[in-house]
Automatic annotation (TrEMBL):
This is dolichyl-diphosphooligosaccharide--protein glycotransferase. Coiled coil: none annotated. Pathway: Protein modification; protein glycosylation. Pfam families: STT3 (PF02516). It is a multi-pass membrane protein. It comes from the Eukaryota. Its cofactor is Mg(2+); Mn(2+). Belongs to the STT3 family. The keyword Electron transport does not apply.
Amino acid sequence: MARFNASGWASRTLLLIMIAVMAFSIRLFSVVKYESVIHEFDPYFNYRVTQFLTKEGVYSMWDWFDDRTWYPLGRVIGGTVYPGLIVTAGAMYRFLHALNIPIHVQEVCVFTAPLFSAFCALAAYGLVKECRSEGAGLVAATLVAMVPSYISRSVAGSYDNEGVAIFALVNVFYTFVKLVAGCKDDQLCKHAPHLPLLQTPSAAAAGHGGP
């Protein structure tokens, strides 16, 4: 029985890894066909803000008045953006450079959405597993990985809020359901007050507060 359980765990882990790799890879067609570039206006604006963040820091970005956006009126960055996407990419950039990986901030921005789509597939697996079963969770993860409507908002180079926000929202739902389902366990109930902390990235990325 123990050997059977270990085999089942290994199979599920392998399937989840394959689903995550598929979710990431399927969103790279624009890079493969053309090159690593930022698409559309809003993603390029987010890229400029992230570039400013990595050079000047969070406080300077928050007080930045960008006179090149919404010309001729300009734009107060701190009061008009959801900082979740920008801060996440900036943190990834700083982390990679701390590991002596000399990557340009543009490459981080281009691949942020495909990376978080893989995380979203794993979060969808956890959510549906808690609600239904492991098999249903695997199906949900597969569908999230390749559904066209989600791909259109998380393709490489589409550096917009949904790239991080959809994962953050699904992860909040998963954590909420996990805590509610496990409230018979005192250890899990002790973590319930921490749920608002997980809602913070969701709200920062797209302005919604989760469940």
